[in-house]
Amino acid sequence: MIQTPEQVDLILLALPIETLPKTAPRTISRLQATGIKTYGDLLEYYPFRYNDFSITSQIGNVQAGETVTVRGNLESIKTVPTRKRITIQKAVLRDETGVIELVWYNQGYLTNTLTPGSVVSVSGVVESQGKKKSMKPMEYELLATADSKTKHTGRIVPVYPTIYGLSSKTILEKIFFVLDLLSHANESIELIPEDILKEHGLMGLQKAYETIHQPTTMREVSEARRRLGFNELFIRILSSKMIKERWSKEQTTAPIKLTSDDKKRVQEFIKNLPFVLTDAQKRVTEEVLEDIQKTVAMNRFLQGDVGSGKTVVATIAAYATHLQKRQTLIMAPTEILALQHFATISALTKNTDLKVALQTGAHKDITSQKKAGEYDLIVGTHALISAKYDFRDVALVIIDEQHRFGVKQRALLKKKGINPHLLSMTATPIPRTVTLTLYSELDLSVIDELPVGRKAIKTYLTPTAKRADGYRWIEKQIKEEKTQAYIICPLIETSEKESMSSIKAVKAEYEHLKKNIFPMLKVGLLHGRMKAKEKEQTMAEFNAHTYDILVSTSVVEVGVDVPNATIMLIEGSERYGLAQLHQLRGRVGRAEKQSYCLLFTTSNNYNPSRLRFFAKTHSGLKLSEFDLKTRGPGEIYGTQQHGYSDLKIADLSDTNQVFSAKKAVDQLLKNYSVDELPKLNAIMRSYQINLIEKN
Ligand code: ADP
Ligand code: MG
């Protein structure tokens, strides 16, 4: 056990919490269960608020109504029974200036801990009846001597989120113990060189930990938060950059060397597409084609709002790859989307010799190792990455609608002995601060314009009183305009998977709509628990206009493309994040016809300004920035994929903070070598190992 100051140095923060003195094994296992494994983790367990008990007074001077801390000798303490099931503990506290009565309820054990003669400090609001003063202490502590230091009273006291079975007070004790050790350590824990800290006006790391846990004024707390948030961002950004740097050295691959003839054929392919590429599509295609010809494996992240036309970019890249007789895998998050990509890509490439396979749970073109070699492009779900067949020569892997395809998947592919170029695509617009912090190991391509002729989707927040009118209007549109509509049922739970109750709800809604609201129309049903074949069939039928209306859970959220559908009705829209609503809305407006989005709500208990903002805003990026500010990053992407959950204190909506952390990283990389900064180096290593394990 580390106790003497000489033994205490940098490794202190890496010490496991099992070495905490005077700590019950149960306390340790509870801390560990919340992810607190080391002393350093304890220091990063931050208070969520503070009790200001910093005003201390002599007992004779206290005023009724003030929140104050007094200390003195306990003269007496006793438990007074009452007629109800309540007990009262009454004590008298005295100093040289006077006495005050202390009153607790139902804290019988106090008569054992606070014994007459002990020195006690209490904080609370003073009450008075005539000359007699009393207090119901909010906090108390037993002191060794009359001038002992206090922890829980007489200062600004941090309040920690309680952990099951552990009070804020216990957590505080452990954190203060570590801070005390640290104050005796002979080496600094600082990670960032002095000059960089100075330029960004940041306090030292140790000071920041001390301040956030033991502030003397509330003003300092915000300075400490700034430093600690900066630290988190700094570590992440630096880590991403180092991964990128390492990739650029290690990830060598056989380049896809396009001959001038190949390049001509690619241009011809583009010319023969049924539409003209937008400038943004051209630019991004260029970026991708350039990358795949390099010997360093591509790590590109393609962002483009719904409907911006990412699929065709992927197709062109696959086409170029096949000209060099090499294979491309395209992976989609669901079978429906895989099927749809397969259909789209097959159509786009029908006049070429590129051979496309579909490989999903329900549909398998590839049934043998031999067949695996026959195709140029294999479309499937994310399961393709661990497919049982070895594809001939995979040079390009494209992943649709999955965030943070990167570190871990790379490792997986490498294990299979391939090191392809990687392109991940997403329609979820990601605020710049987030891209910068969490994705900076990837190169970014952005499609920032929609094909010409697209009209903004007219979006209406429909009050409950207008519900019936809304339905009649949809019916009329369907009859007169021969259009189709989606009706999305509310999210029952916030979980990303569909629960049984959501399925039940969508079925009931489907029956209700079919019978009572739209008896004259053809209504279809789609949800996540249907068999893959049934889903495929339903989508195909909707696409073929067998149904006028498709009632669905939010499974149609990403990627589905039925150009004739122009109406999107979203039930319970108040429960969705705006980025998610935007995805849903993006299912319509995919051709030149005017499209509409109706927002229905299931309760009246919501803030309409969010939805109004949504109705008038058509930029996905603006919407996700709004989400980031008002609901936090988890809302934009669900909670698992992105590893934000471990951002403890940094605020990604604080643009200044993010940019200054990025600048600091650049400064560090320019003027220092991380290898020569042992503390930072150690952190980087453990951080990157974590990143790989978690993702
Ligand atoms: P997303 O980026 O959301 O995946 P898609 O690739 O599904 O978008 O494209 C949306 C629709 O727009 C498709 O029907 C596609 O054929 C069409 N499209 C793509 N690019 C263009 C373009 N440059 N001009 C016209 N239509 C286009
Ligand atoms: Mg798509």
Automatic annotation (TrEMBL):
PANTHER family (UniProt xref): ATP-DEPENDENT DNA HELICASE HOMOLOG RECG, CHLOROPLASTIC
Helicase ATP-binding domain residues: 291-447
Record-linked Gene3D superfamilies: Nucleic acid-binding proteins (2.40.50.140), P-loop containing nucleotide triphosphate hydrolases (3.40.50.300)
UniProt keyword list: ATP-binding, DNA damage, DNA repair, DNA-binding, Helicase, Hydrolase, Nucleotide-binding
One of the GO BP terms on file: DNA repair
Molecular function in Gene Ontology: ATP binding; DNA binding; DNA helicase activity; hydrolase activity
Pfam (any one): RecG_wedge
Organism domain of life: Bacteria
Annotated InterPro entries: DEAD/DEAH_box_helicase_dom, Helicase_ATP-bd, Helicase_C-like, NA-bd_OB-fold, P-loop_NTPase, RecG/Mfd, RecG_dom3_C, RecG_wedge
Protein name as it appears in the record: Probable DNA 3'-5' helicase RecG
Residue spans crossing the bilayer: none
Domain Helicase C-terminal: 481-634
